[in-house]
């Protein structure tokens, strides 16, 4: 039976759902990949937002290379959500002199839902567009496309966009958006352009949250919209809590956070994959994500220090120490009998102590941070 991925995050920083490729500076791209680097280390799996132009795939290959991108797909660390829902608002009508006549917006609905009709041909076309920039031979391209096709999710765009606009318009009708600067003091069709933009932004936030809820993802939600969102969807975990708590723990150990380690070229993506695959990293990701669902940075710091001190460890309790003592005696006797008793009992006791410290005490979240520190020191 395939193991269920527990801690999944939605990344929309590589691709905002672009229809065309934007022009980003080298610094902007580095910042984007610093976020991705951090998420690779702190979450089990990343779902990347991909627009029709598939800029996310282009940016991945440009910065990481085709081989590493293929590896990330093969080991199931990244997936793509082909962003088909569309929500728009009218900006007015452009006149012959180039100015915009905003008066034409009045009497029209403030927001409208739509979708990209994404069949397999459109998806393949978008992948081909991204690959066309890199001069990949046909055999290699065919092999890569076969693997990457399976990593795309294509949601029902019209359903998501229609439901999201309805939620926002219903909230406006019930005057639930007053705290967000959208008091119900006019009918929606008579909203001015500024109000329509606010409504549009909120609709996109709700749309993204609907996708997070459907696919069980953590996201970097806008806290200001939480009251509106929580009344329509299941409780959602915040990826922001996870990353900010992770940063606090790295500060506690007096080393730069993961984003800084990447930006300052102390760690590469290849090293990140190596580090995140070991058992300490898996334990840390699960511990951090689970604790972050109920704890702020102060609480999680206390939890972390308790784990280091062993206060959260069963074998540090009275009952645990008793079981440990009995286990030590049992293993010592068994080992002595097995080898004809040539080893002094004291040596056996020390051996058992070392073994049991590792086997019975369990893992600690600090072990992962220590492994990161060790990797940086090597460099």
Short description:
The chain is of the alpha/beta class. Helix content is 55%, strand content 8%. The protein is built from 16 helices and eight strands.
Structure description:
The strands form 3 sheets. The chain has a 4-stranded parallel beta sheet with strand order 1-2-3-8, with helices on one face. Strands 4-7 form a two-stranded antiparallel sheet. Residues 319-324 and 326-361 have low confidence and may be disordered. 29% of the residues are buried. It has 2 domains: 8-244, no CATH class; 258-331 and 348-377, no CATH class. The longest helix has 23 residues, at 193-215. The protein has 16 helices and 8 strands. With 379 residues, the protein is α/β, with parallel strands linked by helices. Helix 2 runs parallel beside helix 4 and helix 12 crosses helix 16.
Q: Tally the structural domains.
A: 2
Helix and strand element order: EHEHHEEEEEHHEHHHHHHHHHHH
Strand order of the largest sheet: 1-2-3-8
Strand elements, count: 8
What share of the residues does DSSP label as strand, in percent?
A: 5-15%
Q: Count of helical segments?
A: 16
Query: Oligomeric status of the shown chains?
Result: single chain
Globally, the shape reads globular
Structural Rg: 26 Å
- Termini separation comes to 40 Å
Low-confidence stretches: 319-324, 326-361
The average pLDDT is 83
Class based on secondary structure composition and strand pairing: alpha/beta
Helix content: 55-70%
Describe the sheet with the most strands: 4 strands, parallel
